Description:
The chain has 199 residues and is an alpha+beta fold. 19% of the residues lie in helices and 45% in strands. A hairpin with a 2-residue loop joins strand 2 and strand 3 (56-57).
Amino acid sequence: MAKEGQTPQAGLEAIASAVGPAAGKGPPPVHLWNPPFCGDIDMRIAADGTWFYLKTPIGRHALVKLFASVLKREGDRYFLVTPVEKCGIVVEDAPFLAVELKAEQAECGRVLQFRTNVDDWVACGPEHALRFEPEQDTGGLRPYLHVRRDLWARVKRALFYDLVDMGEEREVEGVRMFGVVSNGAFFAMAPADSLEDML
């Protein structure tokens, strides 16, 4: 993969050339790849989901989707990987953003379908959980959706309010919790009696 010192466009094309054959059709099996670490590249995923290379936004959506397909997380670090090399990148919050929500009815009841900013549809459920983290500065909640292999999408604020509208109360380990149900699973947001303070 390309390293620092190239023009953004030339560097992106070099990275894409290395990644492209590995991506192929369908999700690449990055969890099976363990190539040698080749150093960090100046690529960053901002908290709003924008990808940057050499501090310049990557404007081509197809390139972002390509790089996202070979993204791997190991502990708290993120890498772009191919079968032969692995390069570190910076992720400010979560690597993906959930930008669209559809509620569908199935045999198990309601299923929440989320579209990410790289056009993946994820059906929320036991294998693709929702979690809600406290906002440090506002005291509110920050929702995330598990996409794949410890990679998460931050759920846009507007969709969070949609989730609240669909929420319900259930008792969890003796505590009355407010949360949302999808695909037969209940995802607790906060204790029911503290909900107003968390929104």
